[in-house]
Structure formats: structure tokens, C-alpha cells
Write a structure and sequence with these properties.
With 279 residues, this protein is an alpha+beta fold. Helices cover 32% and strands 31% of the residues.
């Protein structure tokens, strides 16, 4: 099977608290985009999981989240099979764009398509055990995710815009940001309802991400300011970073803006109504 695994952007991300078990509570609106990894997945008799990835810095063993997804499915379904996974990485790692989660979701859906052993409800439960963003990546589109990311509902689909993603040459210390939150929590913005009312196409000035406040990183602010200077209607850090995106009215404006960031990875993307696509 050839499977397209779409990246995601967080258009709104508010840390609303922390559970007793240490997990942080979120309100976020996620959006699938047309920047994707491509997976070739095949099955054979016998057993064993074989994974290879075009990005040399990403592990190809049980540390890889796609590998974990295959093993979880096999164990949960009680089946015996060999799985070979070839990942062509296009989504940058450490970006906050759910690249690994999308790969894991692609593996789960491919295995369910092949074996049909679990059903979507159980598959979604399994996805949540693998990673917080994996359940969203199973379905994709425009969705509101709450709790620790496991509770999802549909909302009005984003339309009438194009995104320019800029991935800088630095990473964002997610653990450090959460540690800062735990020692001095920032107030919840509580703006989810207002953000949803701005959908599908008037949300650019309602973008919000708590991690921007927690990081307080001038380099992120600089990329956002440059995107706005290039004509973006809004700009934001996605997830826990380090990728930043701008919202543009059309593809032509986004492509023109990309020329202002020759030193960084850039991608012009459109919103997608799917997280995983079989070709």
C-alpha cells in the first residue's frame, strides 16, 4: 500500500491546566495540511517488523512511533504477520507538525484496511495509547481536541486560505516550557469559542498558542514578524514548535513570501479534509 500521511497545524492551542498524573490539559484546533510523508507498507507471512526511513536522524527500530503502531496493532489484534514500512520523510521532525504521529496513524489504518481486526473505535483507543496527536491524524480535517488531546469533535472546516510553513534551524525545548508552566502557570486564554466563531475563513487574527508565551523566544517572534511583513494575515508557532506558519489569502502570496526565508525549510500548503490518504 502507498499511504499519504498529512502533517497538521495547531491554529489555536491553549494550556488550560494540569492533571494529577502530570499530563497537561489542552484546548486546541488542529488542521490537516497538504505537506505529507509517503509510506510504502507491505505485509508477508511469518513475523517481524522492518522499517526504513529516508531521514537518517530518525530511528528505524522500536523507538520509531510507526514501528510502535505496527507492534501495538499486531498485539491487540492477535495476528501473526510480517510488516515492512518504508517512510519517505517530507514533514520536518521537531517541528510540532505531527509528522511521527501521522506516520503512526498511516500504519494503523493500513493494517486495519488489510486485516479489519479492530474497528475504528478500538483503533482510535489504540492510537491514543501511542501518542496524543495520533487519534487526530487518523481522521484529520479541522477538529477541536480537548483533554490531553484524546477528546475530539468536528468543527467548521477551514477554507479560503493557504499556509506557508517555516521550519527554522533551532528546536524548542518542550519539556522546559512545560516545566515553566508547572512552576508558574500562565492563565488560560479561554478563547476557543471565539476562535470557532471565526471559522472557516476569518480566523487569522484569532491565532493563539500558549507555547509562544512560555518560550518567550525572540527568534520565533522574528519569523512571525517577517511573515506578517510579507503579507500574512496572521502567523503562529504550531504545536510545541519549532515550525511557524503564516496564513495567506492565496498560494501566490504564500509562494512569494517563501522567498524571504532562503536559509530555512519552507513549504506552501493548503488545508486538507483528511489526515491519511490511500493512493
Amino acid at each position: 500500500m502507498t499511504v499519504i500521511a498529512n502533517a497538521k497545524l495547531n491554529l489555536y492551542l491553549d494550556i488550560t491546566g494540569r492533571r494529577e498524573d502530570g499530563y497537561h490539559l489542552l484546548e486546541t484546533v488542529m488542521q490537516s495540511i497538504t505537506l505529507s510523508d509517503v509510506l510504502e507498507i507491505s505485509f508477508s507471512e511469518g513475523g517481524g517488523i522492518e522499517l526504513c526511513c529516508s531521514a537518517p536522524d530518525i530511528p528505524s527500530d522500536e523507538r520509531n512511533i510507526a514501528y510502535k503502531a505496527a507492534k501495538r496493532y499486531i498485539d491487540e489484534a492477535g495476528i501473526t504477520c510480517g510488516v515492512k514500512i518504508d517512510i519517505q520523510k517530507r514533514i520536518p521532525s521537531g517541528a510540532g507538525m505531527g509528522g511521527g504521529s501521522a506516520d503512526a496513524a498511516a500504519v494503523l489504518l493500513a493494517m486495519e484496511k488489510r486485516f479489519g481486526a479492530l474497528g475504528m473505535e478500538k483503533l482510535t483507543e489504540l492510537a491514543a495509547m501511542i501518542g496524543a496527536d495520533v487519534p487526530f491524524c487518523l481522521t484529520g480535517g479541522t477538529r477541536v481536541c480537548t483533554g490531553i488531546g484524546e477528546r475530539m469533535r468536528d468543527t467548521e472546516a477551514v477554507s479560503g486560505c493557504c499556509f506557508l510553513v517555516v521550519m527554522p534551524d533551532f528546536t524548542c525545548p518542550t519539556g522546559e516550557a512545560y516545566a515553566r508552566y508547572d512552576s508558574a502557570p500562565i492563565p488560560a486564554k479561554s478563547g476557543l469559542d471565539e476562535f470557532e466563531r471565526s471559522l472557516p475563513c476569518s480566523f487569522a487574527d484569532k491565532l493563539y498558542n500558549s507555547f509562544e508565551v512560555l518560550y518567550g523566544d525572540a527568534r520565533i517572534d522574528d519569523i512571525k514578524a517577517r511573515l506578517m511583513a510579507c503579507g500574512a494575515d496572521g502567523a503562529l508557532l504550531t504545536g510545541s514548535g519549532a515550525a511557524v506558519f503564516g496564513v495567506f489569502k492565496n498560494k501566490e502570496r504564500a509562494e512569494a513570501a517563501a522567498k524571504a526565508f532562503p536559509q530555512y525549510f519552507t513549504a506552501v500548503c493548503e488545508p486538507s479534509d483528511k489526515g491519511i490518504i490511500f493512493t
